[in-house]
Structures are given as C-alpha cells and as structure tokens.
What does this fold into?
Amino acid sequence: MIKEIKVWDIQNYFVKRETNVNKGSFGKVGIIGGCENYLGALKLSYSSLAAMRSGCGLTRIIVPENLKNLLAPQILEQTLYFYHNVDEIKSAILDLNSLAIGMGWGKDPQHFLIVKEILENYHGNIVVDADGLNILVDHLELISNKKVVLTPHLKEFSRLTHLSVEQIEQDKVNIVKEFAKKYHIILLLKGPETLISDGEEVYVVKRGCPGMATAGSGDVLSGILVGLLGYFDYQLLTVAVGAYLAGLAGEIAEQEKTDIAMLASDTISHIPDAIKWIREQKNSK
It folds into this structure.
C-alpha cells in the first residue's frame, strides 16, 4: 500500500512557535562536505541555508581547512568549523542533533574513514547524499539499524543496489521498500514522484516541477531534511515533510522564475512562502 502525502498530513509540523523559545529549542545541525572547487563550496552554502530556512536553530558547516577562503564569503547566519583529521570532526559533531554528509565532497580516500567513524559512533540523525552515497557502495553494512536517511536519485540507487535503472523502474516501490527493510533505515528515492520508505510503509510525495531539474536541487533537499531532523524525530513522516516542503517551494519558485530560468537558490528563497501556504490550507475532507 502506498500513501500519498497531502498537506493535511503535515500541517502539524508547521504550527506557530511559542514566544518563550530560543535557538537551542530547535536543534543544532551539521553539514560535512565540500572540496577544492567553487561548486563544492556552493553546494554547502545551499544545503546550510536550506537547513536554516527549514527552522533549525543552528547550522554548522564542517569542512577541510583549505576551504576557508572559498566558503567564508558564502556564509552569513551559519557557522564554520574547519578540520584537519577525523578526531576534530568527532569534536565538531558531538553536540549536534542531526548531520548531513556528502554534498560537494568529491573523492578522497580519507572520506571513507570519516563516514565509517560517524556511522559507528554518532548517535544523532544522519542524512547521506551525493558523494556520501558513493562511499557507501559495497559498504552498506555500516548503515544497518542506524538513524540514517539515504537520498539517492535513480542512478545512485542503481549503484547502491547493483540493479540497472530499468530493473528498478519496473518494480520501484517494492525495491525501495525492501532496501529500507533490509537495512532498517529510511530511503528517499528522488524523482518526479518521490518515494520514501522505512521498510514497513511507503509514502509518495507528488510535489516538484521541471524547474527543479537544475544543479543544486538535491543539496537543497538534503539541507531541508537535516534541518527538520534537527528538531523533529527520526521517522518516515518527517522525511516526507522535507520532500513535500522542497517540492512545494520549487513549484512556487517556478511560477516566478519560469521552468527555464529557475535556480536551486530560488527554491530556498521560497521556503517561507511554502510554509505560509501549508499553514493556510483548510482541510476539505
């Protein structure tokens, strides 16, 4: 059975906040990634800003020291932490509620050791995307029974499962569900219709638009997810909420920017409009 997520299912995630709160009330999240090119820095900027727009209290970008000059001009509300080794990363993530790994990370043999250390010892919620997914190919035992969300597109999922894209498309729902069940994690398969499963249930989110077929959209989604998981529980609906919010914000952005001219950063800038729209809808059931 597949459940399509509707706005009524997620409105409780966007109720107005009490007045006696502070940034500590809404979680601390971290983002590990980036490599020595501008695109890697930009991906972290997208992810971290999307996390902040999604309501978390603090976002910490954790990157190698050599990215300081690339990232500093991109960062305003977020904080930066520069590392030289795995031990420094352990210190940087100790107080975090959620963590995203892999955006713009590139290929480096040290990255496997970092991912292994995190998956074996970090106890918060973890989102793995992009280059982080590539690291997990043939090492999926590391994610078993962890509070992990994997966010592959079809080609990335093909590499993880060692199935062809055509094989996956022929039985997509069952393959997604069985993968999530086998490793006891939450899997989000990106596409025109986003499938999310914890191995027991399968949710589908039919939000998004052609304008989101642009560089950085996946990084925006990862940022939204890690932001929400910073102050909401690790559960299937929370991940579905992230997919819905990203897709709706993209749709609103496309209305303004067009499907041709839209950028991933336009999705981020319309997250507030998406939240307003979600709050305003009346249940017609």
Residues 1 and 135 are 32 Å apart (CA to CA).
